[in-house]
Amino acid sequence: MSLKNKGILSLIAFLLLIVTSSAIYAWYKERNKPPVSTTEYIKVPEIKEVVKIQRVEVPGPERVVTVEKLKVVEKLKLPEWFAKDKDEQAIATGVAQPYEGETNVVATLNTKTGVGGLIMKQEPLSLVGFINEKELYGKVGYTSNREIETVVGGRWLFARVGKIKFGAYAESGIRFETDENENNVNGQAVAGLMITY
Predict the structure, then answer these.
(1) 171-184 pLDDT per residue, tens
(2) Which of 67, 93, 122 is the last residue of a domain?
(3) Domain assignment of residue 163, yes or no
(4) Distances in Å between the alpha carbon of 31 and those of 35, 129, 174?
(5) Is residue 105 part of a domain?
(6) How far, in Å, CA of 147 to CA of 141, rounded?
(7) What per-residue confidence (pLDDT) applies to 195?
(8) Which of 45, 95, 109, 113 is most buried (CB neighbours < 10 A)?
């Protein structure tokens, strides 16, 4: 076996190792991910580093300023358990922008005024990581050669280095010639690796 063939086989084995590792990591992460809901509010887990910190009592205001509970429950469609519990109050609200990584959120309370607030920080992504982004798509178009082209495909991004993502894709397409004299149909399929930025 030539040195060139050994190099190609080594590269293919390395890529297969990355793909397999990414698939196992994605499966494990999805399986053990805390529940997230787009239809209802849920309690979120505490920040890992804060769980071990002791809770202490501090002198505070006689009253705490809250968001009017009946209206906030109605406007934001908060869960029934929150609406019925007289001891639970909304002291602040906020919107966290979408982000690939984690966003740490901390509720604050001014002990002089009794007004609550939220502060947040998006944690930077690690330099290298496994990701699990999947996409299926279909395309229909008209080419400059007067052909109708249809394509269906999918892609899976499985690794990330900085902002560069690595993955695989597969597509299948058909072209129909629209010339009245001919009725040609051409098909093709393609698969490969991809790098996106």
Answers:
(1) 998 888 766 666 67
(2) 122
(3) yes
(4) 10, 18, 38
(5) yes
(6) 8
(7) 92
(8) 109
